[in-house]
Every structure is written in structure tokens, then in C-alpha cells.
Design brief:
The protein is mainly α. The chain folds into two domains: 52 residues; 50 residues, no CATH class. Helix content is 75%, strand content 0%. Helix 1 packs antiparallel against helix 2, helix 2 packs across helix 4 and helix 3 packs antiparallel against helix 4. The longest helix has 24 residues. It is extended and about 70 Å long. It starts with a helix and ends in a 12-residue tail after the last helix.
Length: 116
């Protein structure tokens, strides 16, 4: 991350929360462990997105996710995969996010209506 004091404090809080969730999961057994693992994976995904997306790009992605949840999650997974493979240089800004959304958008069926 950028290393600012606020981000470091946030990261410390996240780590403490993760430890608490893991402790709670261990005490609850398998079901709790699965839930904690799911929450940890979600937290890691959000951290990667926060690291690689600008604020505008995150807002755009959240807007898409609100209207089309499956498509938004697919885009999130794609961004995380790109980040983990090291194919993202710098941050994804709003324009790059628009391009990514355009590329991943499912082909919509077009209808040509001709009047006689």
C-alpha cells in the first residue's frame, strides 16, 4: 500500500478482526471455520481491490454490482486474478474500468426493427 499512517492503522485493525474471526471460528467448529474462511477471503479480495483501483473505479464497480450483482462479482474476480498474476501496472482508473467492463460485458442481443 502507500504506507500512510491511516492505512497502516486500518490494516492493523483488519488483522486484529481476522484474528478474532479465526479465534471465534476455532471455538465454533467446522461451520464457524467455513464462515470465517469465507469472510477472510472476502476481506482479502476487498484489500486487493482497494490497492489496485482508484476511488472512481471502485465507485463504478460498486454501481455495476448494485444493478447486476453476478456481473459485478465476475469483474471483481477478474481484477483480483489480474492483480495476483502481476498484470496490473499501477492502479486501474475510471477509464480503464470502463474498458474492462466493456470487454467483459456479455454480448447483448440486438434487434433491428424495420418498418414497411
Amino acid at each position: 500500500m502507500s504506507g500512510s499512517p491511516d492505512e497502516e492503522k486500518l490494516e492493523e485493525l483488519r488483522q486484529k478482526k481476522m484474528e478474532q474471526l479465526q479465534d471465534r471460528a476455532e471455538s465454533q467448529g467446522d461451520e464457524g471455520a467455513q464462515e470465517a474462511a469465507q469472510q477472510q477471503a472476502e476481506a482479502q479480495k476487498q484489500a486487493v481491490l482497494r490497492q489496485h483501483l482508484t476511488d472512481d473505479a471502485r465507485k463504478r464497480l460498486n454501481t455495476v454490482k448494485m444493478s447486476k450483482q453476478q456481473f459485478g462479482e465476475q469483474v471483481e474476480q477478474q481484477v483480483v486474478a489480474l492483480a495476483r498474476s502481476g498484470r496490473i501496472q499501477g492502479k486501474i482508473d475510471d477509464e480503464k474500468m470502463k474498458q474492462l467492463l466493456q470487454e467483459l460485458k456479455p454480448d447483448s442481443k440486438s434487434f433491428d426493427i424495420k418498418r414497411r
